[in-house]
Amino acid sequence: MITQVQIVEWLQVFASVIEHHKEDLTELDAAIGDGDHGINMDRGFKKVSSQLGSFTGKDISSIFKAVSMTLISSIGGASGPLYGTWFLRASSATDGKQELTTEDTLKVLQAGLDGLLERGKAQLGDKTMIDVMSPAVGAFEQAVSEGLETVEALQRAVIAAEQGLKATIPMLAKKGRASYLGERSLGHQDPGGTSAYWMLRSLLEVVEGSRG
């Protein structure tokens, strides 16, 4: 079970992780993109972080919707619409809920992924955040089918996400600014996939921490 309090904690942890790794994301994006992914993500999640106090007592759906609106309005480039879409779809999947069962969490992850696929028009193998999120959702779904609890399912998802992230390094980019580089995009880890991995890992850390 993931509580509303843990969702707020997750957003705070993820914002801190982004701030800590801002330069890493910028360096990754400078190699194959506009070089602003770290700056944009940090700006967006600092804004989210500043709003966390206003989320007290709100249901998870309302929190996700507020995060979505904030990210869309404050993150430039492709990341704002993509992360905004992820949280907006997550909001639709959590209507009125104050806590999420393992099955609810799967619905959140699947809804977010579906939103990314529709918004970004990318597929597996295109060297995008889909290469991280898709295997993560698949691993979580498999864990649920085996009757595992949320924390174990998230552990599986994060392992799959990390494997998917590493797999972007030798890929040829087929979407976004990186696709303009052709073979020069080879050998670089996808920056959007990197931030997506940290998002999932941050959630796992919060859930693991609450379990002790």
General shape = globular
Strand content bin: under 5%
Tally of separate helices: 9
Rg from C-alpha positions?
16 Å
Low-pLDDT stretches are none
Distance between the termini: 14 Å
Topology order in helix (H) and strand (E) letters: EHHHHHEHHHH
Strand count, sense and closure of the main sheet? 2 strands, antiparallel
DSSP E strands, number = 2
Which structural class best describes the helix and strand composition?
mainly alpha
Summed over residues and divided by their number, the pLDDT gives a mean of 91
Percentage of residues assigned to helices? 55-70%
Strand numbers in spatial order across the main sheet: 1-2
Oligomer: single chain
Domain DhaL: 5-205
Keywords: Kinase, Transferase
InterPro entries: DhaK_L_YcgS, DhaL_dom, DhaL_dom_sf, Dihydroxyacetone_Kinase
Organism: Anabaena catenula FACHB-362
Written overview of the protein:
It comes from Anabaena catenula FACHB-362. Residues 5-205 form the DhaL domain. Keywords: Kinase, Transferase. This protein is mostly helical and 212 residues long. It has helices at residues 4-20, 22-32, 37-51, 60-74, 79-92, 102-120, 130-145, 150-167, 191-211, and strands at 2-3, 99-100. It has a two-stranded antiparallel sheet with strand order 1-2. The mean pLDDT is 91.
